[in-house]
Structure formats: C-alpha cells, structure tokens
C-alpha cells in the first residue's frame, strides 16, 4: 500500500483522489460536503481554499478512502508477457493508486491468490494447462476472496467461450484488441465497486 501522510497532498489532489477512487462527480462530492458545485470546482482547480471545517471534512474523506482493510492490488494473469505489460500500463494510468502483480500462468496465479488477496483480477482465458476458468473456480472457492472482482481478457470470438464468460459471474470482459477508453471505464468501475463506494 502506498503511504500518504496527511500533508503530502494538496487539497486539489485530495479531492481528485477521493473523487477518482469513489467514482464521484464534482456535484456528488459537493453534496457530500454540503457545498455547491462551483465551490468544489474552485477548490479542485486551486482557485480558492476551503474553510477549516470543509478542509477537515476533505481530510477525513481522504483518510477514509485510503483506509482499506486490504491493499489496492490488481493481479494480472496473462501468459503473453507483452499483453501483460500493456494491461499493467493501462492499470497504472487508470488506477494510479493501485499496485499490480503479473502472473504469467494459471498455476502461479493460484499459488499467489491467497497471499496477495487482490481486489481485482484481470484474467486471460486461453492459457496452457490451467486456463482462466479454472483460476476463477479457485477464486470462487476461497472464502477470503469472496469480494474479489474478475475481469476476463481474451481474443477469443468462439460463441461457446463467450457464453461461458457470460455465465461465469465475472465482473466483465475485455475483448482483444483492447480499446483504451473501454478498458479505463471498466477498470474504474470495478475499482469503485470493489472498494464499496
């Protein structure tokens, strides 16, 4: 987990951090603080500073957002190293406060699941020996992983495979070739849901 001391970030950075991780618009953030949208907009742009009572509320929201019982970890399970690196870069851009761990096969992923307890797993379907569906079965059988969200990643177009994905209870599907905006949207939505915001 990344350590953030209270004074390390500016008010605009704290507001953006909370809004990004909780998936809040400026209007929604303003409602939580009991202020107007233009006020939050001015704070986030650094055009004005909040009163001490509002600063305290922002600091509390920031601390609450950081205070998780589990780390913000994304496990990437992908047997193609190039694809794994691309996914890792997408996660870094979409979820900068999250860490990533790459597993190049299903076997290593199954060993590391209990240790890492990732909140989110990006899971390739077509892998030798232990495929993505077997890894998902393992996740579903681990009580401590009950709230872990799984997003399948595949280039497969076979209707049987896609039907199996739809029936699997996974959070979503990233179809290769990946489309950046779609990937970012899915990652942010999954991150927000996994944190319960």
Tag the structure with descriptive keywords.
single chain; 197 residues; alpha/beta; 434 Repressor (Amino-terminal Domain); Rossmann fold; 2 domains; 5-stranded parallel beta sheet; 9 helices; 13% strand
Structural overview:
With 197 residues, this protein is an alpha/beta fold. The two termini are 19 Å apart. The protein is built from nine helices and five strands; from the N terminus they run ααααβαβαβαβαβα. The chain has helices spanning 11-22, 26-33, 37-44, 52-66, 81-94, 106-116, 132-140, 159-167, 180-195; strands at residues 73-77, 99-103, 120-124, 149-154, 172-175. Residues 1-7 have low confidence and may be disordered. It has a five-stranded parallel sheet with strand order 2-1-3-4-5, with helices on both faces. The protein folds into two domains: 11-66, lambda repressor-like DNA-binding domains (434 Repressor (Amino-terminal Domain), Orthogonal Bundle), CATH 1.10.260; 73-195, Rossmann fold (3-Layer(aba) Sandwich). β1, α5 (81-94) and β2 (99-103) form a beta-alpha-beta unit. 27% of the residues are buried.
């Amino acid at each position: 987990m990344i350590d953030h001391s209270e004074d390390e970030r500016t008010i605009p950075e704290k507001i953006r951090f909370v809004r990004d991780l909780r998936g809040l618009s400026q209007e929604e953030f303003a409602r939580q603080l009991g202020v107007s949208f233009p006020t939050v907009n001015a704070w986030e742009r650094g055009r004005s500073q909040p009163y001490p009572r509002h600063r305290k509320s922002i600091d509390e929201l920031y601390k609450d957002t950081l205070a998780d019982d589990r780390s913000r970890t994304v496990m990437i399970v992908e047997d193609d190293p190039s694809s794994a690196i691309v996914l890792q870069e997408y996660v870094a851009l979409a979820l900068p406060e999250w860490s990533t761990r790459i597993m190049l096969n299903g076997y290593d992923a199954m060993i590391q699941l209990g240790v890492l307890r990732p909140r989110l797993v990006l899971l390739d379907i077509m892998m030798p020996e232990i495929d993505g569906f077997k890894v998902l079965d393992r996740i579903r059988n681990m009580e401590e992983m009950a709230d872990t969200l799984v997003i399948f990643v595949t280039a497969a177009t076979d209707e049987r495979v896609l039907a199996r994905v739809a029936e699997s209870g996974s959070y979503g599907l990233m179809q290769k070739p990946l489309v950046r905006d779609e990937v970012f949207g899915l990652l942010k939505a999954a991150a927000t849901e996994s944190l319960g915001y």
